[in-house]
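Deliverable D4.2, example record:
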Amino acid sequence: MSAPWQKARDYMKTKEFRDYITSTHFWGPVASGGLPLAAVNDMKSSPDVISGRMTTAFLLYPMVFMRFAYRVQPRNLLMMASHGTNVVVQSMQASRYLIYHHGGGSAAEATAADTNAATVATDAAAATTTIDTHSL
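Output generated by the structure prediction step:
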């Protein structure tokens, strides 16, 4: 178990590793990693705030640059993984957008809100009637 850690520690001391850490092959994917994190955080918000155009752009951009990250020499697999993650998360956002705006999600939500409002009003009326009956 100690041998892999020793090998990793020895590699981190090499000039090759220092050159990698100070290159755009490392910092590009690190900076690009913020896009999927933001999209994951946006999963908590309502789908009515999702921009269809921005989601499409954030979906197509990483698809193009995933290929570039693979084809460039030396291959930048970290960048490819970062863009792949972004494609997956943005696809989830796009599906939420499509379901909400084109799949009846907003209409169903409006109907559910109306139903909930009617239920609350009915419950309030029933409670008032019950209170009036017991006060007699």
